Amino acid sequence: METVKPLDVASGKGKLRRAFVKVINMKKLTGVVPEEEKVERVKKSQEKVLVKNAANLSESFDKLEEEYEKRLSMEALLAKLFATVSSIKAGYAQLQYAQSPYDPAGIQKSDNLVVSEMKTLSELKQSFLKNQFDPNPDRTLVLAEIQELRSVLKTYEIMGKKLECQLKLKDSEIIFLQEKLEESVNQNKMMQKRLNQSGPLDHNNPTHFVTYLHHTVKSIRGFVRLMIEQMKFAGWDIDMAAESIQREVFYYRQDQKCFAFEHFVCKIMFESFHLPFFTSESSSSSSSSSGHKKSRETKEMFFERFTELRSMKTKECLASRPKSRFSRFCRAKYLQLVHPKMEQACFGHVHQRNQVSAGEFPETSFCDAFLEMAKRVWLLHCLAFSFDPEASIFQVSEGCRFSEVYMKSVAEEAFYSSESEPRVAFTVVPGFRIGKTLVQCEVYLNAV
């Protein structure tokens, strides 16, 4: 028989304690805690979440605000950039306007403005590269908009002034053409009256040549007047231009300096007048030595050309016969008379010169006045070579004594301003001999 062992009370207590501890630990793991402790932990957890969410929101707002400020600063930079470009454009427009007519103070002011705005552009570039943005972009945006509007307004004002100048020039051209038309009508009436009184036009009537010479000189002076107006509008110094044509000439009145320009135009237009066709290349009929009959035919040919061209419009003649002697004469005289620098200064380009070189005269009042003058000179040449013997041209040298037989003074003041005998300063319009008839040359006199 087995003996019954006594119960170990101490070990039983230990086992019970261990079991109780396990139960407590299991309750803790399964969340079984007292209610108050549970509520406290939930509150703390929610507070942590709220604090974390608040920190995240604050950080997000800071990022958004930073991006907004950066974007606003970039917009301010661009607005200032465009405003500066508009200012440069306005300054350049003002610079162009100050050049014609020439205004030294205006050019200096415009140049300083352009240079200043270019420096501003350089500063904006450096600010962008270094990320140095404007601390007050709102104010900069408003100021940039005001600056741009002012620059645009200034540009429009300059354009308006240019259009006003062009309008004044067109008005002066209209007045000139109206005066020219009225003058031409009166001259045609007088010419018709003289022709009726002197009989039909023939080869050897000096009266007809003198009458046509008078009309030719009128057309030359009309062209010179228009040329001087163009030079004044372009800002040229008329005194300096007259001095460059004829140096050391004393003019009794300011308006008499136009005679220097008439001298320049006549010198070019009448150059080679003594040669057939204004060139040494004569036709076979004129260069032939077959006698008086050939010479007579040549004179008839010149008179026929005079009659034919006189009844035609200049533009029609040039368009229908672009390779004729008259067309070549017009192109050569224009290119010789109107210097490229003069055309560039007066019109701002050399398009007319390029067109004339290509054989086409543009539709401008300046070219129309030139063609009218060229046609008159060419017809006078044809009429001179239709005479038997042909009319000859002459002029007097500088410093010659005045002779009433060969000369006519365009300035009567020379005879009253000094007790000494006046001398020729320059020939304004050349003189002509037609048989026994002498047409005096017009001269400008200087008192010695």
TrEMBL record:
<dbReference type="InterPro" id="IPR040225">
    <property type="entry name" value="GIL1-like"/>
</dbReference>
<feature type="domain" description="GIL1/IRKI C-terminal">
    <location>
        <begin position="393"/>
        <end position="444"/>
    </location>
</feature>
<dbReference type="GO" id="GO:0009639">
    <property type="term" value="P:response to red or far red light"/>
</dbReference>
<dbReference type="InterPro" id="IPR006943">
    <property type="entry name" value="DUF641_pln"/>
</dbReference>
<dbReference type="GO" id="GO:0009959">
    <property type="term" value="P:negative gravitropism"/>
</dbReference>
<dbReference type="Pfam" id="PF04859">
    <property type="entry name" value="DUF641"/>
</dbReference>
<feature type="domain" description="DUF641">
    <location>
        <begin position="71"/>
        <end position="194"/>
    </location>
</feature>
<protein>
    <submittedName>
        <fullName>Uncharacterized protein</fullName>
    </submittedName>
</protein>
<dbReference type="Pfam" id="PF24994">
    <property type="entry name" value="GIL1_IRKI_C"/>
</dbReference>
<dbReference type="InterPro" id="IPR056813">
    <property type="entry name" value="GIL1_IRKI_C"/>
</dbReference>
